[in-house]
Amino acid sequence: MSLPLVFDAPRRALPPTHLADLSPEQRRAVVAELGLPPFRADQLARHYFGRLEADPAAMTDLSAADRERLGAALLPALVTPVTELTCDDGATRKTLWAGHDGTRAESVLMGYPDRATVCISSQAGCGMACPFCATGQGGLRRNLSCAEIVEQVRQAAAAARDGVLGAPARLSNVVFMGMGEPLANYRRVVDAVRRITDPAPAGLGISARGVTVSTVGLVPAIDKLADEGLPVTLAVSLHTPDDELRDTLVPVNSRWKVAEVLAAARRYADATGRRVSIEYALIRDINDQPWRAELLGRLLRSELGVRFAHVNLIPLNPTPGSEWDASPRPAQEEFVARVRAAGVA
C-alpha cells in the first residue's frame, strides 16, 4: 500500500528557542531583555560557533551568574545521542539522536583522507513516500528546528576536531541527505545553512561550497533557493530518467515531472554557477537497464549541459525485508559506462 505525499509536517511542539535559531541581532535583543550587555551575546556565540562549546560551565570568561542565565535562555539541550555506531575502521560514525520530545533523527560523520563530512537530517521522518526508502516509508513526524539542524553540525565538528575519526580533522563538508526532504522544511533549512556558513561569531564558518542540499524535486522551492544568494550545491534525487517509473519510485513526480525538475535544476545552476549533483540509487532490475543509462545521459546533456551535470550513482542500500535490492556490480559498471559515453561525469 502506497503512502500519501505529505508536504506540511504535523503540528508538534518545537524545542525551546536556542542561540542557533536566532540572527546576531535577535541574540543581542534576547540578552538585553535579560538585563545584560548585548555584547554578551557575541561572547556566547564565539563559544558556540567558534570554539564549538555548548556547555555554559566551560565559558569561564563569563561570570557564574551570567553563565547560568545565558545558558538557560539561549543554550537549552536540544539533541541527545541515543546510539552511536562506528564502521569502516572508525572512519564512519552514525548517531541516532533524540529530541526534547523523544523524536528521533540521524546524522553520519565520515572521515576521508582529505576531508571530513557530516550527513545531517532536516526532518524527523519524511513525507515523500519513496517506496525503496525506509525513512520515506516510516512517514513524517515533524520538522526539525533550525538549531536542531545546526547542532548536528556543531557536534560533528567538535567530534572531528577531537579525533573521534582517528587524527583530529576540520569538518569541511555538510550534506543535507539524512532523514527528511530539506526543501519541505524550507525556512529552517535555509536559516541553518546561513548559520553553518556565516563566519564566527555569526555561524560555524564552513564554506558554502562545502554544503549540499538535496531534494526529490520540489520545483518552486528549487527556484526560491536559487534566489537566496547561497552558492551551495543542489543535489536532485532523480533515480530514473523516465516519468513512468519515477511516478512510482519518487511519488512527488506526480506533481513535477522529470523535465520540470531538470529545468529548475538548470535555472539553479545558471543562477549560482554551481554544478548540480544528480543522485541515482541503482536498484536491481528496476532502474539499472542500459537504455535508462543512455536516456539519463542524453537528458542531462541536453537539459543541464555537461558543464553543470554530475551524476552520483549509488548502489541501493536495502533495508531488511525489503523487496528492493542493489544492482549487481556488472550492471553498475555498464550503467556508469553508458552515462559517461554521453559525456556526463
Structural features, described:
This protein folds into two domains: 19-74, DNA polymerase, domain 1; 80-341, TIM Barrel. α1 (24-33) packs across α2 (39-50). The protein contains eleven helices and eleven strands. It has a nine-stranded mixed beta sheet with strand order 1-2-3-4-7-8-9-10-11, covered by helices on one side. It has helices spanning 24-33, 39-50, 64-74, 134-138, 146-161, 186-197, 219-226, 243-249, 258-272, 290-303, 329-341; strands spanning 80-87, 92-98, 104-112, 115-119, 123-125, 140-143, 171-176, 211-215, 233-237, 276-282, 309-315. It is 36% helix and 19% strand. The protein starts with 23 loop residues before the first helix and ends with a helix. It has 345 residues and is of the alpha/beta class.
Blueprint of the fold:
Elements: H1 24-33, H2 39-50, H3 64-74, E1 80-87, E2 92-98, E3 104-112, E4 115-119, E5 123-125, H4 134-138, E6 140-143, H5 146-161, E7 171-176, H6 186-197, E8 211-215, H7 219-226, E9 233-237, H8 243-249, H9 258-272, E10 276-282, H10 290-303, E11 309-315, H11 329-341
Parallel strand pairs: 4-7, 7-8, 8-9, 9-10, 10-11
Antiparallel strand pairs: 1-2, 2-3, 3-4, 5-6
Helix pairs in contact: 1-2, 5-6, 7-9, 10-11
The whole-angstrom Rg is 21 Å
Share in β-strands: 15-25%
Distance between the termini: 37 Å
Order of helices and strands: HHHEEEEEHEHEHEHEHHEHEH
- Contiguous runs where pLDDT drops below 50 for at least 5 residues: none
| CATH homologous group name of the largest domain | Aldolase class I
What is the spatial order of strands in the main beta sheet? 1-2-3-4-7-8-9-10-11
Per DSSP E runs of 2 or more residues, the count of β-strands stands at 11
CATH topology of the largest domain: TIM Barrel
Helicity, as a percent range: 25-40%
What CATH architecture of the largest domain do you see?
Alpha-Beta Barrel
Based on CA inertia axes, which overall geometry fits?
A: elongated
Q: How many structural units, i.e. domains? A: 2
Q: Write down the CATH class of the largest domain.
A: Alpha Beta
Quickly give the structural class.
alpha/beta
Given the structure, what is the number of helices? 11
- Tell me about the largest β-sheet: 9 strands, mixed
Q: What's the overall average pLDDT, rounded?
A: 95
